[in-house]
C-alpha cells in the first residue's frame, strides 16, 4: 500500500507534467530511487539493478519498470493500476549482450512513446552511461534531453503529509543523538558506539518506526574530526579529543539530520571559542530565515558572524533535505551558499550544516528546519552546545 493518498500522488504527477511542458518534454524517464518513490510510491532495495518510472504527458498514470522479481514489491507499494507495472526477465540482469534499457525501449514503442522529446536523469546516481547509450541506439526516432533534476525541484516543496513524516524523523534523530552522546566514552570502540546509535535509529520512537537512513552515522574522532563524511573504525575513543557526530533520522524514507560535537576531557580554548561562534552564527542565521528571502541571503547572515570572529567556511552551510535513498539524504537542488538565488518558500526543508573543519580538528553543529511564511519550524530538538564529558 502506498503511504500517501492517491490524490497526493496525482498532484505530484500534475506538478511534474507542468515542469515537463515548460522543458518541452513529451516523456520523462525518472531513474532516481527517490523520484521513483515520489511519483509511484515504489519502495524497495532494488536500485542496484536498472529500474525507472515513465511519465508521459498523454498518460493518466506513470509506468513503473523494473526487474521481474521486483514486480511483487511494486504491487505492494505503488498506487498504480496493474497495467502500469512492467517487469523485465532476469536474462537482462548482468548480461554482456542484453540490457534492461532494451526492454524499456520496447515498452515505449508499445505505448507509442518512442518518438518526440524524452527526458532522462543524466546526473542521477543509478542512471549509467551504458543505459543512456542503449536507449539512444534503440530509440532512433526520439530526441533525448537532460531532465535532471526536474523532479527534485518539484519535491523541494513538502506537503503537510510529508512534513508529518519529517517531524517523525526529527524525533528519531534527536533520540539517536542522545544515545550517541551517552555511548561515546574513553575505551569504547567506535563501531560499538555506532552499533548503539544504529539501533536507536532503526528502533525509532513509539510513534515513528526507524527506516534505514540514506547516509550512515559519522563519528570521526581526534585528527579525523577535521574531515567530514568519515564513518567509523574499531579504534577506541580516547581522552582529550573531540568527536563529531552526524546522524540522520528516517521514517518512511523521509529524513531529518543532526550534528553535534562531543569532547572527552577539558576542551581547548580554541575549540570552545569556535563552538561559541558557530552557535552564535546559527542563531543569527535562523533569525532571518523565512519565505521570500534567497538561499544566498541566509548564507550571508552566517558569513557575517564568523568573518567578524576571524573564521571562514568555504563550503555551503545547508541544502534541501527530505525523501531519499543511499548514498545521500540531500535533494540536490537548493544550497545555502553565495550565488544561489533560490527563493525560499513555505514547506521547503533544509539541513543547516555548520561544519567547521580545520587542519587537524573540527566542530559540527546542525539543525533540520522547515521554512514557514514568517520564519521556520525546527524539526530537530537537541541542545546547541559543545558537549563535554570529563
CATH architecture grouping of the largest domain: Alpha-Beta Complex
What is the CATH topology of the largest domain? Creatine Amidinohydrolase
CATH superfamily of the largest domain: Creatinase/methionine aminopeptidase superfamily
Main β-sheet description: 6 strands, mixed
Q: Could you say which structural class the secondary elements and strand pairing correspond to?
A: alpha/beta
Give the rounded overall mean pLDDT.
97
- Tally of helical runs: 10
Which CATH top level class of the largest domain fits?
Answer: Alpha Beta
Q: Uncertain regions: pLDDT < 50 for 5+ in a row?
A: none
Name the helix and strand elements from N-terminus to C-terminus, one letter apiece.
Answer: HEHEEHEHEHEHHHEEHHEEEEEEEE
Q: What is the rounded Rg? A: 22 Å
Share of β-strand residues: 15-25%
Task: Give the N-to-C terminal Cα separation.
Answer: 50 Å
Neighbour order of strands in the largest sheet: 4-3-2-1-5-6
Count of separate structural domains: 2
Shape label:
globular
Helix content: 25-40%
Notes on the protein architecture:
With 390 residues, the protein is α/β, with parallel strands linked by helices. Helices cover 34% and strands 21% of the residues. The chain has helices at residues 6-23, 33-40, 71-77, 100-110, 129-138, 150-155, 160-183, 190-203, 269-288, 295-308; strands spanning 27-30, 52-56, 63-67, 85-88, 116-120, 142-146, 241-251, 254-264, 318-321, 330-335, 349-353, 356-357, 362-363, 366-371, 376-378, 387-389. The chain has a six-stranded mixed β-sheet with strand order 4-3-2-1-5-6, sandwiched between helices. Strands 10-9-11-14-15 form a five-stranded antiparallel β-sheet. The protein is globular and about 70 Å long. The N and C termini lie far apart (50 Å). The mean pLDDT is 97.
